[in-house]
Amino acid sequence: MAGLELRNIAKSYGAVSVIEGIDLSVEDGEFVALVGPSGCGKSTILRMVAGLEDISGGDIIIGDRVVNDLTPRERNIAMVFQSYALYPHMTVYKNMAFNLELSGKPKAEIDQRVRQAARMLELEPLLERKPSQLSGGQRQRVAMGRAVVRDPAVFLFDEPLSNLDAKLRVQMRSEIKALHKKVGVTSIYVTHDQVEAMTLSDRVVVLNHGVIQQEGSPMELYRRPANLFVAGFIGSPAMNFFEATIEGNSARTASGLSFAFNAAEAVSDGQQVTIGVRPEHFQAGSGPLSGEVTFVEPTGGQTFVTLDLSGQPTMVLVSSEEDIETGSRLSVTAPLERTYVFDGQSGRRISKN
Amino acid sequence: MTETTAPIDAATAGGGRSERLPTKVYLYISLTILTAIIIIPLLSTALGGFKTLGELRGNPFGLPANWQWSNYGDILFSQRYWLQMGNSLLIAALTVFLTLSLSAMTAFTFAHVKFFGSGFLLNYFLIGLMFPAATAILPLFIRIRDLGLLDTYWGVVLPQVAFGLGMSVLLFRNFFRNLPSELFDAAFVDGAGYLRFFWSITLPLSRPIIATVGIISFVGSWNSYILPLIMLNSESKYPWPLGIMVYRGEFSTDWQLILAFITLTILPTVIVFFAAQKHIIAGLTAGAVK
Fold this sequence. Notes:
- The complex is a heterodimer.
- Chain A is an alpha+beta fold.
- In chain A, 25% of the residues lie in helices and 35% in strands.
- Chain B is mostly helical.
- Chain B folds into two domains: 2-48, no CATH class; 78-285, MetI-like (MetI-like fold, Orthogonal Bundle), CATH 1.10.3720.10.
- Helices cover 79% and strands 0% of the residues of chain B.
- The two termini of chain B are 35 Å apart.
């Protein structure tokens, strides 16, 4: 086991730069999720750590070794792929043993390690089967078994759950978490699904256009997003945004909605800002913001209500105890301590919370 | 819902059937004609081998009145038949082995390794598809003579392999490129190099294309006539197509014997094809439809 450090790593294809100077350090045993929209460079970073992709600049350090020029095997990493990438012609046992055979381990040791990993992942009855005879979830477990069996310094997960259906995904999520608890290996997990990232990891790194937007614990990102991108990306359903202008101590939209907020820095009248309020933070019932209900989506415990606030569709989360009908009017309040304000130009958060 | 749609389904199915029926009839008629064109000469050759010369002249297409098993028996007990079969098999085996190993490795390189000029080099290989061996027979003869390979099996095998490479490399490369690239990544992370990936992952997954290329080159070599004719002098090294020629020279009036001999030479190819036809079709259409 070992920590991992990325020092100013960059990647460009010819003149096109996809990763620009990423710095990231992952502590020994930590579970870090890289999350971002498709094309943000998260998979490229993972492949660079694995050694499947050359780096154009910077250093990758695993433990205390710079591994820039080492082959994937010499880096002592294990990777779980989106498509599982199991060898179709080999049995589960062979799939798991392949790496150990290549590294010339004695047969007895290979057998012992494969069986130990199989026991941990409940794969024992499947050892003699071929991947085509397994279900999606079982294939996923074999892919993890293949990674565990090598006892690597770092685990790399490349969107490992995106080929599974919703129910299985939740189950495998908890299995991955349990596995990490058991083996405690430093792990990097790439996903475009922020729910996966938040539920699994100790720390989430949000990427966009090859640049780290923010890193921190899941709740830190949710509570104190550094900028407009993180605010919009983290949280489901997504935060509501309103274009506004500073007027004294509050911000006013062109349509006349007014939001009070706690500024973290000096703001000036007329400054362009974006107001952000999460659907679950609106308090329904009474308040200065009132609009017509245009859409109601009951989900059981909670109901998503879309309001027309002076021409702007706004999502509000209300308790399912309240019966709200399309066409009725609803008044809401945006609490002062839950109203985010972002600079109109840079997108940086300028409110205290 | 089902009540209203059921009659409509029946109506459209009925309409479809009456429309489709003539198309199917035409299809079967043309397939029957096509099959007959192939089967009738084959069958009459095989049956002709069971007749006496007189009967063959009087009744070339019908069943023999008296089955002359001795026509086939004599050939099967002759040393010449087995010697020529051995020659044909040896030449075909060497050709298949060399074609498979060379084209698989070449195609693997073109499919996975990026290097300067790889596109040009691949096209250069494919130019080979445009030239049948017969067009280059004179320069080939001179080159084989200079190499001292005249009247050796290699003098036939090497040109056959060379002319087969264009097609084989193309078939192999297309197949390899359609294998998922994550398999390569996984193997690389597992510690495999190119050679190991080729041997342990690519080849075991390439059975259909190996069968296809193997059969194509086997049949090509089995039927090859011009090359052995030019390169081989000793009758003891002749493969079957040349053997038939010599046999015909000797028994020029005994057509029933020649027909029996021809039937016996065709038989192995037919057997090989039937044994592997599933693979051949799978290999030729591989990658066409996901």
